[in-house]
Structure formats: C-alpha cells, structure tokens
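Hello Y.,

Per our agreement to keep a running log of every chain we model this quarter, I'm adding this entry. I've kept the format consistent with earlier entries: sequence first, then predicted structure.
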Amino acid sequence: MKTPRMLLCAAFALSAATTVVQGHHSFSMFDNTREEVIVGHVVRWGFNSPHTLMYIKDAKGTTWGFEGAAPPAIVARTPKIDGFTFKPGDRITMIHCPLRDGRSGGAIGFIVTKDGTWYNPADGGCRANEMNWRKWIEAGYTSRAQGEAAAKK
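Predicted structure for the entry above:
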C-alpha cells in the first residue's frame, strides 16, 4: 500500500516540477508586438543565471526592471558583455518589449550607452531589429509604432 502511494506522490511532484520549468521559459509576460525606448540611469546590472537583469531609473524617478538573456548566451557577443559592462549611474537608452500587465519593466531588446555603443543582451522576449532601431533612434522615435508609421508616409 505504501509503494503505490509513494509512486503517486513522486509522479505528482515530477509533473508539478515540469510545469514550473516550462512556465519559466515562456515569454508570454512580454508584449513583443510593442517595442519602446526608455532613457535612464543604471541602478543595477545583474549578470546572473538564469537571466541577466537591468534596473534603471527614468527621468521621472521610476525604477524599471528588465530581463535579458543568460550570461552563457551573451558572453561571446560583440561588443563584449560581462558583469562590469554597465555600472550604476551610467546613462543608457534601452529598446525593450514592455510587460503586458503595464508594470514598469520588460524584456531587453538593445542597450545603447552614452558613447553610442550598441549592446545586445536580448533573448527571445524581445526580438527588436537593430537595423531599424539604429535609424529610428537617430530620427528620435520612441516606439516601433512611430518608426513603422513614418515608413508608411
């Protein structure tokens, strides 16, 4: 009697763990149909697994949180990205896909530093097009919708 009950408990625990793992790798919390720009100062750059995290403070004083790819996925990218690439106080421009629920955050698309260097710590949460964004940032657009609308004129 104890053996079937233990097997049932083990099967339940395994199925619950599988659901959690599958849920973790979903990008459904990000609205990848929208890409927006935010300018601010780095509060914290977390170069940790399973995802990098960027916290920035905008001009209104709101702190935003953004998720990027795991460190092993970005260490070989050019330009080099590591735990010291972004420091508290650095001014950055971030292209991101916002959270669907409206909270202050999203998935990282690109990060542009004050000196004009473009970094790509993105994963599947935001697949922004760098060629488009280079033109749109130069033109002063703050969303993909603005860039696409201008292209239709």
